[in-house]
TrEMBL record:
GO molecular function, one term: manganese ion transmembrane transporter activity
Record-given protein name: VIT family protein
Keyword DNA-binding: no
Predominant subcellular localization, coarse grouping: membrane
Membrane topology: Multi-pass membrane protein
Regions crossing the membrane: 147-171, 177-195, 207-228
Recorded GO CC terms: endomembrane system
Lineage: Bacteria, Bacillati, Actinomycetota, Actinomycetes, Micrococcales
Keyword terms of this UniProt record: Membrane, Transmembrane, Transmembrane helix
């Protein structure tokens, strides 16, 4: 079954904001983890800047491209289903009405009312009624939505990754490791608040999960760098 919406949902709804918050988190954690690993290995400031810049650019392009490809595949699947349903409506319209009637009967309507609803929806937009009832597809995604999903994911990652990158550029080397840890923890906390508020989930649990993963990643990365070199 094809999902109701694209992998990154529609623009500007709560699901999209949560998705962007996750992508920004990925940008912060991935870039900070790389920096802490290099710092643990005793890398110079120049090496750290190059590593952070490379991680920022590569991560944003990779996530944006992957998300676009994912959304495009979803759109193609929706188009195939829409074409199949359109052909079925043209060949057997009565059977499709019967399927739609059965769907609303399962929803709790009596047979007569379910038939009436099915007929009225089919008169308005038969294909959309079938797609929504059988596959949960409200609207087939547009090309613009697939591109927007990729761009949104890439930009969100970039925004998150820039935070540790800026610290690497502007904070003195002696304070860099601790500055990254503290600022990244604060940034993750802020994004966790946004994600919790838009998703109406527990703020405490969201904060704990986000900070545990972020701080844990940085500590383990630093230890790996220190132990390997």
């Amino acid at each position: 079954m094809v999902s109701t919406t694209s992998p990154r949902e529609r623009w500007w709804d709560a699901a999209t904001l949560r998705s962007w918050a996750v992508d920004a988190n990925d940008g912060i954690i991935a870039t900070a983890g790389i920096l802490e690993g290099f710092a643990g290995a005793g890398a110079s400031d120049n090496v750290l800047v190059v590593a952070a810049a490379a991680a920022t650019v590569a991560g944003a392009l990779s996530l944006g491209g992957t998300t676009w490809a994912e959304a495009s595949a979803e759109r193609e699947a929706q188009l195939i289903i829409a074409a199949e349903e359109s052909a079925a409506l043209a060949a057997h319209p009565d059977d499709e009405i019967a399927e739609l009637t059965a769907y609303y009967e399962r929803k709790g309507l009596d047979a007569a009312l379910a038939r009436q609803v099915a007929e009225q929806l089919s008169e308005r937009d038969a294909l959309r009624a079938q797609l929504e009832s059988e596959y949960g597809i409200d609207d087939v995604m547009s090309i613009g939505e697939t591109v927007g999903a990729g761009v949104g994911a890439g930009v969100a990652f970039l925004v998150g990754a820039i935070i540790p990158l800026l610290i690497t550029i502007f904070v003195p080397g002696a304070l860099e490791t601790w500055a990254i840890l503290i600022v990244v923890a604060l940034s993750l906390g802020l994004i966790a608040v946004i994600a919790a508020r838009t998703g109406r989930v527990s703020l405490t649990r969201t904060l704990v999960r986000s900070l545990s993963v972020g701080v844990g990643t940085m500590i383990v990365s630093w230890l790996v760098g220190a132990l390997v070199f």
